[in-house]
Amino acid sequence: MSGPVAVVTDIEGTTSSIAFVKDVLFPFARKHLVEYVATHGEEPTVRQCLSDARTLAGEPSLDDVGTVALLQRWLDEDRKATPLKTLQGLIWADGYARGEIKGHVHADAARALRAWHARGLRLYVYSSGSVAAQKLIFGYSVEGDLTPLFSGYFDTTTGPKVEAASYTKIAQALELPPGDILFLSDNVAELEAARQAGLFTACLDRGEVAIPPGHGHPTFHDFTTLDPFALVS
Ligand SMILES: CSCCC(=O)C(=O)COP(=O)(O)O
Ligand SMILES: [Mg+2]
Fold first, then answer.
1. Which of 76, 111, 131, 185 could form a cystine bridge with 10, CB 3.0-4.6 A?
2. Which CATH class is domain 6-16+103-231?
3. Ligand number nearest to the C-alpha of 22
4. Which of 11, 71, 84, 136 is the best mutation target for the ligand 1 pocket, counting ligand atoms within 8 Å of the beta carbon and taking the most?
């Protein structure tokens, strides 16, 4: 093996602060959810989200008001449910476009992603946030438009981030052996799943939340000292 070909990165807690997601993005979606469904509720994507949420909850007869209440509950619980994530992305799009939200990306992450891209690494995102939401946070970021750096995006439609099969699917989509890929995350369960699928892993511990010790994944406080070429060989 001659080093990594691709880096797949998580967003919340890895490239971007947990506080931004919890204190800015989620409250913005919660504040605008009722109004958004009232004004866009007849659009096919929104109808599909409402219907998928009812199916997921096992409550097929819920009306729209009840479904919105369900989605609000899921939002408060930080449920990584695809219909909720899709709706959040649609709501955030308005906020980014109006300049009310700017995507948080750590300066060290932006700097490293630019350097790795320049060295020829293929960069991908795998986040519970929808692909649309991923493009927004990086497209309207405080570090500028970072989307030209990325070759592709994966969300929960590929599968849960804590299941090895999701990483196998990503490797297949990238047309790479898993051993050519480095996965970055702040979530040990995600790192375990990626390692089980044969990917290299690195844990980002930015000190925002307590990450249980002893997990065995190479750990970094930020991207400054994280060299994919030293980790994958
Ligand atoms: C795409 S930014 C919003 C992130 C989000 O909704 C979320 O649930 C965070 O999940 P991640 O997999 O990036 O930790
Ligand atoms: Mg994360």
1. 185
2. alpha beta
3. 1
4. 11
Instruction: Specify the fold of 21-97.
Output: 1.10.720
**CA 67 to CA 47: how far, in whole Å?**
11
Rounded (to 5) percent helix, strand, coil in the chain: 50, 15, 35
The amino acid occupying position 146 is L
Is 6-16+103-231's fold the same as 21-97's?
no
Q: Which residue has the tokens 């790192």?
A: 191
What tokens appear for 33 in the block? 């959810």
**Bridge partners (DSSP) listed for residue 153:** 125
Contacts of 194 (CB under 8 A, 6+ apart): 8, 164, 167, 183, 185, 201
Q: What does the pLDDT look like over 100-150, one tens digit per residue?
A: 999 999 999 999 999 999 999 999 999 999 999 999 999 999 999 999 999
